[in-house]
Amino acid sequence: MSKTIDFNNTQIAFQSKTTEQLGKAKFLFSLLGYGWLTRVGKVLMQIAFKIRLPIEPIMKKTIFFQFCGGETLEECKSNIDVLYAEGGVMSILDYSVEGADNEANFDRTLAALLDICNFSELQEQIPFLVFKPTGLGRLELFQKVSEDLPLELSEMEEWAKVKKRFESICMAVAETADLKLMVDAEESWSHKAIDQLTEEMMVRFNTKRTVVYTTVQLYLWNKMRYLEQSKELAKKHHIRVGVKLVRGAYMEKERDRALAKGYESPVCVDKSTTDKNFNHGMSFVLENLEVFDLFLGTHNEVSCMQLVQKMEEKKLLNDDARIWFGQLFGMSDNISFNLAENGYNVVKYVPFGPIRDVMPYLIRRAEENSSVGSQSSRELQLLKKELKRRKEVQGDID
């Protein structure tokens, strides 16, 4: 029952962490609380990488250690094993190398995804794979296709390769016994092309089980209509549609572009409206579980509790295979582990890759946690609480 879930229970939240690890996390989140320090640190890191200063060892022990599972699949293995063994939390291995801009890099990303698929198939604690479409093709090309602009011959050939890569990873996952594949979010001006590709893959591979999931960013006010269209797609083709619901990650970029180009901003006017849109989307999917599988990707405790309560109202089992909760590695352990303790399906996104290559991802995590009203203050509060609790317990033992 939801009344037994306490997101303030730090003993459960941090059961997989040593006191030394908690101390390091406390120090890091304390630093991230200073926005100016994060901004300066971002510039210094970029300069250091540009002039090839050997800062990887320092980063690996600090921000990389907190937010990434490792540099390789093998390094991730120990982290995902601990998450599962200590708290029943499963994992999604997220190859977080960004900035691919040529065919060779796109092919390397596909090869890495296929390796992840082979690796994950043998791990019971990894139910999903995830990839960003722009890891397999240029954002500018997705945009051009989305806007129905004519393609040059070379671009037509390029787009055919993008579609082939999409198909290759979807087919590889579909051929496993039960792995699922998440198509991650991108900027709105690429959505039409990405949605079309994803829907083609759903129609092809989601006939017997839910293999392919799309991501719906509900800070975009028009996405409720897309959910309604997805329901129609499912009924028309007799398939299941997997949807990951998120609020969104490109708010400022979306608003700035709309202003610069003179069109209406696709982003909800404020957080309250975004929350209402998110809750509406969650309710819509839950009311249509005959065609949908739901993945709730959020660090918002209220949203998670609302889903728990709605599941109770509908008399759904805690571990209903159609419903998943997800948070990022290194954040919101109080949500992940307390939900898993109560039998819900929970996964952590576990980013990995060479430190230099995952820098854009790490910078985003740092910026998000240093912004006003960010998650870092909540993380810091929980870390302090658990360290105090452990100190008191140790005092009793002594």
UniProtKB/TrEMBL annotation:
One of its GO terms (biological process) is L-proline catabolic process to L-glutamate. Keywords: Oxidoreductase. SUPFAM superfamilies: FAD-linked oxidoreductase. Pfam families: Pro_dh (PF01619). GO terms for molecular function: FAD binding; proline dehydrogenase activity. Residues 87-377 form the Proline dehydrogenase domain. The keyword Magnesium does not apply. This is Proline dehydrogenase. It comes from Flagellimonas aequoris.
